[in-house]
Structure formats: structure tokens, C-alpha cells
Design a protein that fits this description.
This protein has 744 residues and is α/β, with parallel strands linked by helices. The protein contains 21 helices and 29 strands. It binds alpha-D-glucopyranose (GLC).
Amino acid sequence: MKNQLFLFVSLFVLVACQPKDPIEKQIDDLLSQMTLEEKIAQMNQLSGGYYSEDLESAVRAGLGSMLNSVGEETNYYQRIAVEESRLGIPMLFARDVIHGYRTIYPIPLGQAATFDLALVEEAARLTAQESMQAGIRWTFSPMVDISRDPRWGRVAEGYGEDTYLASMMGAATVRGYQGFDSIVQLAACVKHFVGYGVSEGGRDYNTTWIPEIQLRETYLPPFKAALDAGSLSIMCSFNDINGVPSSANKHLNVNILRHEWQYNGVLVSDYASSQNMIAHGNCHDLREATLLSINAQMDMDMENHAYSNHLKELIEEGLVKEQQVDVCVRNILRMKYRLGLFDNPYCAVENPVYYSSESLSAAQRAAEESAVLLKNNGILPLSSTPTILVCGPLAHSQHDQNGTWCFDKVDSATVTPLMAFRELERAGKIRLIEQMGKHWSREVSQSNITQLTRLARQADVVLFFGGEESILSGEARCRAHLNLPGDQSAQLRALKAIGKPVVLTVMAGRPLCIGEDINMVDAVLYAFHGGTMQGPALANLIMGVVSPSGRLPITFPQAVGQIPMYYNKKNSGRPTSNPVLYDDIPVGIEQFSIGADSYWLEYGDKPLYPFGYGLTYTTFEYGPVVLSDTIIDKSAIIASCEITNTGTMDAVAVPQLYIRDLVGSITRPIRELKGFQRVTIPAGESRTVSFEIEEADLAYWHLAQGVDLGADGDYTFSAEPGDFHIWIAPNSAEGQAARFALKK
Ligand code: GLC
């Protein structure tokens, strides 16, 4: 007993004598000088982007943050904050810089398709450079909402359906934004915490029901990865989860975020998301929404006007303690110190440099690597000096090509496919025919089709750039049909009818159900909305300067009726093996056995294209998975595979590591992505790729021994002994499994 007491006392003395972090000391000092009104003002974020006396007064009273103010305006308001407020606390300027500031990179869904973490981090680093020159020090990105529903417009902003891929992409983006100096460059804000991508029916802002185990297994890990990568902030989501809106969700925001994860960064509401709780129906008025939000430790109030209007009265009535406010203000001041704002509050860039060659080069590489070759009957890459017809609604749209969430681009800086092919014609590499006229993806025009087929007859090959206008993608842009908008399919049908070879490039913010369109053409590049340099990128891909290397970060369903559809599904008790399809059922026979297992009569259980899928201009042969051992006990094992480029072009393989836990106390997915690499393999050569697998990679959330489901979950995150399959494969649907066992 004496020894334990001695140990406890010495530990206490040790901790108490630790020199306090200088930032914490500065926070203590500043906090001790702040009035309650000034503390509450720090917890308030208002929208800028205009000059107003009311806004100036709020700044003078100590406003904590402003969103949507950029450039010289930030210095205008910052001067008031620093020089005219009582304590001179600098403001934090925020903006939705989601996939680029001026230079626009592919939408995050497209960036995920690159499976290139270094490139994604580089794009974020360059984005931070441009943003900071505009006075922005806080971006509301990365968005890591897992979504398996392409109807949801915001699937464009996330990294797709897979938890591991989204975790890696989100962490890479945080590192790129924030940098590695002692002073954080651009503060990240991982969002939307949590489960927003599960909005029922793919309809934005809609309700979500997520069981605890699934919440922990699928939706929380990407946030934890982004916070572990250092994200200075996190944003709650609009949806209610299991009946409680995120803004007031103490299980998420207190139990998990603050206690389990020990997070002391800033939790910011989404835009008026606390106010939205009145519509949600879990509170009567803004005063109550304020109480719910502060009790869920929401630090910063984005445009709710809740804290500024009701927090003081709640404290005076004893319903909220000032200490709760102090915790929030500490988190906000800590972020400002980490950004160095107290020493350098102003944007001191006289002549900002945007669209640098470095940024444009990275944007082009990202657009090249984000394009996924779905089909190629050999027509690509184009060779010789063909006569090309460039057509389609996205062939020359300097706005739509960039996709959703890019407020600060300069449209004229966008290089479209048509501009890139005009360049090739000037260089004598092709003869170009253009279908002129501004087309919109939703346009229906018989005269367009008449003109199109007339021009196509003069060409050797038709390059049709289709997809979605950017207005159809992003927040509050949910679609019930996932067809190519307008009469694009009719245009493709008309081209098919005249027998011209057609290359379809799709520039969209989501997977589309375009199986019939794909059947009508000779090759398909799925390029997503690819940003400023997508034109030259697509020209390079189509002309064979680079081979496509993108892989799908999300399953492409054959039909909307199959949604939600994702690769890492559970097996069910009756997995389908031999579906009898709708058209194969004889008409007029009343009794016909079509079995009793799990599939859709029209399509079986197959998607249009699976997660991880993508072709290149060569062919790769994957050898068997070779294991260093077939037992994992205390040490890791190495899984290797030899990949041979059996074609005639150098290309990038993207081997993906999947496992399957064959038996678990909770049913397990039929595959789980646990690793990936990008490997350039010259034509005719082989490379061996290796991955390390250890027990920690096999852990998952399940109930502790002896606890029944539904009880107050005593959840545990651990691996259970047993047998596993393992693949190193080109996508989530192919490959030969090897087998190993975990012994404990
Ligand atoms: C929006 C979005 C969020 C964004 C915020 C500020 O409604 O949900 O992602 O960061 O408001 O613009």
C-alpha cells in the first residue's frame, strides 16, 4: 500500500511540475482578462463578404471568426479587431476551400479515384498557399462523409464509400493544408460529424439511423484519422442521428469526441445547424437550441445567432456555467495561437500569386490520375493524325468542368477539352471539327442532334464530353434519376446509328447509371469534375501521352433501384450464386423455380462497375498471393504478389489489399480494403508488391465477450481468432484469395 501511495504522489508531483505549454499559459492569461460578453463573442462566427456597420460593431465587440470574407476585406475587418477591440484578439477568417481556391483540383471524389495520397497532399498544400494569400486561414475541408448513395449531391465532396480510403485521403488532405511547421498554415476542419452521407433516400439533410457498431466501424474512423493527422477543427452535421441532431448530440460531441478521443480542437456548428434543431423538432426555440448546443460542447456558432443572443441569459439563470464557456473559448484561442494569428494577424501579401505553374501542373496531374477508364474496345489511345469531332455539353464549359464548391476560381483560367484539342490542331497533331454553340447538360435540342450527326460524318472519331452541369452536384443537389441529363443519350444513340467510333468522357459529380450509354460507345473515361486543367489532362489521356490510372472510389450501380450498393457488403444468409434473371423467366409459365437467394431479378447482384475498378492502356496479370506465414500470432505476416505488365504500354497498376474475416461474432463484410499502392510497371516487366498484415489490421468493433446485442453496448475493438481470406487484386471483385489464421 505504501509503495502505491508513494508512486501516486510522485506521479502527481511529476505531472504538476511539468512546464505548462506556453500556448496554454497565454490562453490562461488572456482568458483571465476577458469579460463574459467577450468570451461569448469569441464563440460567434458571422458571414462576411460585405461591408456593414453592424458587422464592424460585432468585430469591435470581439467577434471570434468570419466566413466568406476574402482578400483586402479581411485586413479591413482584422484591423478593427486588433486595433479597436478592447483586447485586440485577432479574428479567424474561414472559407469553403474544398478542392482548390483559384486553381481548382478534381472534386474530392475524383481525387479519391487517384488512390495517390502524395498527390492529394500536394494539392492541399498548394491550395493552402493560394488561400493564405487571400487572408483565409481556416477551410471547411476535408469532408470525409462515407456515402454509398450517388443520389446524394454531396457524394461529390467526399472520398467515396470506403472507410479506409476516406481515412487515408482525409488525413493526407489535413497534412497538406496544415503543413509541418510549428505555425499551422491553413487550419483544416474535418466534416460533417457524423453520418451525413447516410441521409435517408439520398436526400440531403435527411434523417439517419446508424447502429453504434456501424457508426464505429464505418463512419467514425475517417474523422479519427483526420483528427490524428492534426485537424485543428471539426464540424458537426445537419442530420439527426438516431433521433438526435448532431449539433446537440452529446454522445458524439462529448462522450466520443471529447472523452474517448480526448480532442481539444474546435467543434464548429454547420451553417445555422443549431437553429435547424427547431425544424428538427427536438427543441422549441433558439434559446433551447443554445442550451442543447453548449451542453454538447459546440465551441463555435456558425451563423446561428444562438450564443450571441441567449448564452449570457442562460448563464445568468444558472442553466449554463461560465466554466463551460471557458472550455470553448480555450479551444478557439488555442486554434488562433496554433495559427500564429496573435503575432501575424494580417494577410500581408501585396501581389498574390495564383495559378502558378506548380499549381497548374499538380492540377493537371490530379485530373489525369482521377480519370477512370471504364471501357476501351481498342480505340484508345488515338494514334496517327485523326480527324476528330469534339462535341457534348461539357466539351467547353469553363464553369461546369470545375464542379461544385469552388467560389473563387476565375472561369477564364479553366482549360477545357475543346481548348486543349484546338492546341493539338495548332501543333498539327490532329484535324479538328467542333460542334459549336453553348450546350447545357440538361438541354434537349433536335437541331443539336442534326448538326451533330452531320459533323460526325466528316470525322474519323467522335469525342463526346458529357456529364452533369455543376449545378446538379453538391449540397442540396440530390437526384432521383442517375441518367445522363438532357438528350445526351439520344445524341449518343444518333452517333451510334451512323456508325462512327465514339469516345465518351463523363464529367460529373457522382456515379451515373449509364450502362446503356456505355453499350453504345467504343470507350468511356469517367473523369468526374476535374478542375482547371481537366482539358489538357483528358487530351493527354485520349492521345496516349499518359495511360489512365484512376480506380473507382465508389460502386457504380446499374440502376437507382440497387442503391445502396457497395463492395464491402455483408454476405447475407442467402448469397446469390446463380441468379435467374428477369428476361430468362419464361412468360406464361406460372410455376418456375428462380431459387431463393439475394439478388435483383433485372440485374442479379452485380453493379455496373465495382469499387476499385479501372482499366489502363495495357493489361496486368496478378500472380497468386504469397504469404510469409499462414499464422498471425504475435508478429505480422507479409503478403506479396507479382504483377506483370503483359501489354505494350507502360502503365500504373493499383494493387489493392483486401481481407475477409470468415467468421465473426458480428457478421463481417465479404471484403475490406486494408491497403493500396500505385506501381508503374514498364511494358513486359513485372514488379512484386508487398503488404504487411498484423493483428491490429484485423480488429473490428463488436460486443465484448458475453454481452448480448442490444444491451448497453459494451463494445470492444479487437480481432477475434479465426480464419481469414486475403487478396491483392486489381479491384474489389477480382483476385484469388489466399488464407491465413489469427491465433490468440
Ligand atoms: C454549408 C455546408 C458546410 C459548409 C458551411 C459553410 O451549409 O454544409 O459544408 O462548410 O455551410 O459554408
